[in-house]
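Entry for the shared binder. Reason: the reviewer on the internal report wants the predicted structure included alongside the sequence.
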Amino acid sequence: MTDYERLWLCLTCSPEGALCDKRDVDTLQKYNRFFRILKEPKRRPDAYASIDKELLLLEHFQFDNTHITKKGSEQHKVTAKSNQTFEKKLLRNGDFAVLNERVRKSGEYYIDNFIAQFNSHYKKIDEYIAEMKLELNSNFQSVYMGFVIEDSSPLGSIYLENYRPQELDLLRTTEFLTLFEESKKLDFVLFSMTGNADNVYQSFISRNTIEQHRESAINAKEIDSFLFEQSFVASGRIDMK
């Protein structure tokens, strides 16, 4: 899947649409005009749309809630290991195998991974704008820069609060809000949690409602663990004749 295709998956993952503060409704509707006519650029960022002298740019990135090593996400490493194990064990028709894997998941990993990805993309915003103006051969009066941020943690980032499961909305964390407020080149963020097809989540924020979001924000780093650290994966081989 290309970056452009992944971005579209995030934009359309929730049938109910994106949750947002009522004071952001008009802003989201303004950007929706551009979302309907998104195109894939020659190089970067991941998508753009222009209307008259206005330009909207979107850049997508993923992160998850597990530890990151020099070789990448711990979750991706375990997934690759599981796939390799199944390939070795499922050799004949009727073979069956079960794997029991544990991956440590925490709010600290979640935020550290998010910040690392955010910073690596944010520092390129000036380059994104310059490249698109060159590609389209136009000087725009207004440029809107947005990030599409995807939590791709398998089964989502779900934690317990007073014994009840809660979805962690990145946009309602103090860590995100502080970073977003400092990042003046970024106009809005659309967040999607896509790791569980039965439990997708999507939200939106603009710079206009940072303070309103602070009223219900939580400190994500204080979340000691997320659900589904332990997983059982079963697979079998059936040859169709």
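Summary line for the report: The CA atoms of residues 18 and 150 lie 13 Å apart.
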